[in-house]
Write a structure and sequence with these properties.
Layout: H1 13-20, E1 34-39, H2 47-60, E2 64-68, H3 71-77, E3 80-82, H4 110-122, E4 127-132, H5 134-145, E5 150-154, H6 170-191, E6 194-199, H7 206-214, E7 219-221, H8 229-241, E8 247-252, H9 258-269, E9 273-277, H10 289-307, E10 313-318, E11 321-326, H11 327-332, H12 339-346
Parallel strand pairs: 1-2, 1-4, 4-5, 5-10, 6-8, 6-9, 7-8
Antiparallel strand pairs: 2-3, 10-11
Bound molecules: 6-O-phosphono-beta-D-fructofuranose.
């Protein structure tokens, strides 16, 4: 029944809802009784702490709390279960997300969004809390546009959501990468080698820049800042001329390929060079204190928004406090890496 819409545009969704789901009433301010929560996109340490906070604050506020498994994919299929206070015990310190997550292509189509809205109605989810990054928030925004109230909580290791200065999982991922790089430094120094380490971040260099500063990297390559292989080689040779005998190069995954860069360094300098791709180990592990507290307080803020009938908001961290912004406005914002910090990092190696 949805095929005719799969190539359509989302702004027509209200019409489609009216045609397909007369039971979705868009005319009235909804009374929230049931609140659903799902985690979407890449998992991030602290997502469990977020679910725990939303469920506990939600039940205390008198809402019926429901967990949706496997992100939007699970919503689509109606994978919904009630969650009480005790169902989230012993989750605060655990990595991953016990609700599981998925990258759901189906939700990028109008038909997928409609099916999600239908499932919210079927399970009496009057407001859906979505924990994830920008892509997940776009799905939430599309639901909001057709009358399903939503609240977003930023959860991604990349810290690349424009409207917030912090995303849950970022601190843990950086600490995990830092510990791994400290170990790589030990072996690079023993063998007088160059270690080229690729860190995650998709199209953003926040993890790479901070981890590079924290590990004293000689070179940090970011997707936001153009770089040149000749300069990389020159910096390494300058370091060698000053007496350095091992070298750390951090590459953000969006900036280049660690294996290729290591080979070019070795060919040009004859310094043995080894690539390491840290990969998904950066997404696992028990969340740090910062991620646990951020997750907990952002989760409570989400429920405060629902109680106060401030719906279709994104919970954010701005100017040192947890607050919230309109979802449409939040998604329209842009953020960029601090070029001042990039320049300062170059003075430290
Ligand atoms: O968004 C989080 C992230 O870990 C990115 O840093 C990375 O590019 C991507 O997810 C990897 O995605 P997947 O786990 O689907 O391979």
């Amino acid at each position: 029944m949805f095929e005719e819409y799969t190539n359509g545009n989302l702004p027509n969704l209200k019409e489609m809802v009216a045609k397909n789901y007369a039971q979705i009433d868009l005319s009235q301010e909804p009374e929230v009784r049931g609140v659903g929560i799902l985690t979407s996109g890449g998992d991030a340490p602290g997502m469990n702490a977020t679910i725990r906070a939303v469920v506990r604050a939600g039940t205390k506020a008198g809402f019926k709390m429901m967990g949706v498994t496997r992100g939007y994919h699970g919503l689509w299929k109606g994978e919904v279960k009630e969650l009480g206070h005790r169902d989230v015990s012993e989750t605060l310190q655990r990595g991953g997300t016990f609700l599981m997550t998925a990258r759901s292509k189906s939700f990028e189509t109008p038909a997928g969004v409609l099916q999600g809205a239908k499932m919210c109605k079927v399970f009496s989810i009057d407001c859906l809390v979505v924990v994830g990054g920008d892509g997940s928030f776009k799905g939430a925004r599309d639901l909001a546009r057709i009358g399903i109230p939503v609240i977003g909580i930023p959860g991604t290791i990349d810290n690349d959501v424009a409207c917030t200065e912090y995303t849950i999982g970022y601190d843990t991922a950086m600490n995990t990468a830092m510990e791994a790089i400290d170990k790589l430094r030990d072996t690079a120094s023993s063998h007088e080698r160059c270690s080229v380490i690729e860190v995650m971040g998709r199209h953003a260099g926040y993890i790479a820049l901070n981890v590079g500063i924290a590990t004293g990297a000689e070179i940090i390559l970011l997707p936001e800042v153009p770089w040149d292989m000749k300069e990389v080689i020159k910096t390494i040779l300058d370091c060698r001329n000053k007496g350095k005998r091992h070298y750390i190069v951090i590459v953000a995954e969006g900036a280049g390929d660690a294996t290729e860069i290591a080979k070019k360094i070795e060919d040009a300098t004859e310094i043995e060079s080894r690539p390491t791709i840290l990969g998904h180990l950066q997404r696992g592990g028990s969340p740090t204190l910062r991620d646990r507290t951020m997750a907990s307080l952002m989760g409570v803020r989400a429920i405060e928004c629902i109680k106060d009938k401030r719906l279709n908001r994104l919970v954010v961290y701005r100017h040192g406090e947890i607050t919230d912004v309109d979802i449409e406005e939040g998604l329209a914002m842009k953020k960029s890496i601090s070029l001042d910090e990039v320049e300062r990092s170059k003075l430290l190696s």
